[in-house]
Design a protein that fits this description.
Elements (H helix, E strand, L loop, with lengths): L3 E6 L5 H8 L2 E8 L2 H10 L4 E4 L15 E4 L22 H14 L6 E7 L9 H13 L2 E8 H4 L7 E8 L2 H6 L35 H7 L6 E5 L2 E5 L20 E3 L5 E3 L2 H6 L15 H10 L3 H18 L1
The chain binds S-adenosylmethionine.
C-alpha cells in the first residue's frame, strides 16, 4: 500500500513518477500533451490515470486528491540555449498553469502538502533572479515554505551524466519544511563502463561510416576509446571528466547533440536511445515502445529527469511527511 499520492504535471515519460514510486509514492494522475510521450508513459505506468491533453484544460475539480504535486515544467525559455524570454514566452507561462491548479485546489480546501518542481538551472538567475523570485512568491502566496537547490546528477545521483538542474520543494507545513534536508553528494561508482557498451555490436544505423559526410571531422576529433564526445554544431567536444555531457531534447533533431563514442573496435557511433535512458537512471527494463522512432526516444530521454536524483529527494520528502505531518 502506498501512503502518499502524486499528481504529475508535464509528465513526459514519467521520470519524476518513477523516482517517487521508488520512494513509495504512487501517481494518482498525470498530465502530458505530447502523444508520443504518452505512449511511452502508458507502456511503463499502465495503472496510472494519464490525461493526455493541454494542462490549460485541466480542472482541479476533476482531479483526485493528492499529497504531492510535481512538475518539470517546459524549460526552453530559461535555458542559455533558449531565447531568454522567461515568463513572457508562452511556454514560460505554463508555470502559471501550475499556480492556477493549485489555487483551484486551495479553493476546495485540498491543497497538496508538498510541491516539487524541476527546471534548468538558468531559471534561478534568469532576468537577474526576477523570474525565480516570482516562482517563489507565487508559491509563498499559496502558503508554501519553499527551498531550492541546483543539483548535478553525477554528484548526487550516482549516474555518470553532467546535468545541473534546479529542484524546488515547497511544504505547506513549517515543521516539515524545517525538517527537510537536501541530499548530500555521493561518490560516483556507477561509471560509464557500466552503462555504455564499448565492445558489442549495436544496430548498424548507429555507426558512422566513411560514406557519411561528416566522417572525416569525426575521425579526426574522436580519438579516445573511453570518452564521450558531442557534436556541437561545427566542432566536436570531448568530455574529459569521465561522464556524459548533458542529454538534451534537441538530440531528437537530426541526430545533433547525440553523444558519440569510439568503441573498442575503433568504430564511431552514437549512443543508443537505450544508453541515453540508462544515463538518466531509467531501469534496464524500461519499455521503449516498438513503433517509436529513435528521434522521439532521444528527445524524450533528453527532456526527462535523472530518476536517481528524483528518488533521493522523494525519499527525503516521504521521511519528512512520515515523521512530521
Ligand atoms: C521538460 S519536459 C518534462 C519531462 C518529464 N519530467 C519526464 O520525466 O519525462 C516538459 C513536458 O511538458 C509537456 N508539455 C508542454 N506543454 C504542455 C501543455 N500545454 N500541457 C501539458 N503538457 C505540456 C511536454 O510535452 C514535455 O513532455
Amino acid at each position: 500500500m502506498f501512503t502518499y499520492k502524486l499528481g504529475s504535471l508535464f509528465a513526459g515519460i514519467g521520470g519524476i513518477d518513477l523516482g517517487f514510486l521508488k520512494a513509495g509514492v504512487s501517481t494518482a494522475w498525470a498530465n502530458e500533451i505530447d502523444t508520443y510521450c504518452a505512449k511511452t508513459f502508458k507502456s511503463n505506468h499502465s495503472n496510472t490515470n494519464l490525461i493526455v491533453g493541454d494542462i490549460c484544460n485541466l480542472n482541479a475539480k476533476d482531479l483526485e486528491n493528492i499529497d504531492i504535486l510535481a512538475g518539470g515544467f517546459p524549460c526552453q525559455p530559461f535555458s542559455i540555449a533558449g531565447y531568454r524570454k522567461g515568463f513572457e514566452d508562452d511556454r514560460g507561462n505554463l508555470f502559471f498553469q501550475i499556480i492556477r491548479l493549485l489555487k483551484e485546489f486551495k479553493n476546495e480546501n485540498r491543497l497538496p502538502k508538498v510541491v516539487f518542481l524541476e527546471n534548468v538551472k538558468n531559471l534561478y538567475n534568469h532576468n537577474n533572479g526576477e523570474t525565480f523570485k516570482l516562482v517563489r512568491e507565487e508559491l509563498k502566496e499559496l502558503g508554501y515554505h519553499v527551498t531550492e537547490k541546483i543539483i548535478n546528477t553525477c554528484e548526487y545521483g550516482n549516474i555518470p551524466q553532467n546535468r545541473e538542474r534546479l529542484y524546488i520543494v515547497g511544504f505547506l507545513d513549517e515543521d516539515c519544511f524545517n525538517s527537510f534536508k537536501w541530499p548530500t553528494k555521493t561518490p560516483l561508482t556507477n561509471t560509464l563502463d557500466k552503462i555504455v557498451d564499448w565492445d558489442s555490436d549495436v544496430d548498424k544505423k548507429y555507426y558512422y561510416t566513411e560514406s557519411t559526410k561528416c566522417y572525416p571531422l569525426l575521425a579526426e576529433n574522436i580519438k579516445n576509446n573511453r570518452s564521450i564526445y558531442q557534436f556541437r554544431r561545427v566542432y566536436i567536444r570531448e568530455n574529459k571528466s569521465g561522464v556524459c555531457p548533458t542529454l538534451t531534447a534537441n538530440m531528437g533533431m537530426g541526430g545533433h547533440n547525440v553523444p558519440l563514442i569510439k568503441d573498442s573496435k575503433e568504430r564511431i557511433r552514437k549512443l543508443t536511445p537505450r544508453e541515453c535512458l540508462l544515463l538518466q537512471g531509467f531501469p534496464k527494463d524500461f519499455i521503449i515502445p516498438k513503433d517509436l522512432c529513435d528521434s522521439r526516444v532521444y528527445k524524450q530521454a533528453g527532456n526527462s529527469v535523472s530518476v536517481e536524483v528524483i528518488y533521493r529527494i522523494a525519499k527525503e520528502i516521504v521521511r519528512v511527511l512520515n515523521e512530521k505531518c
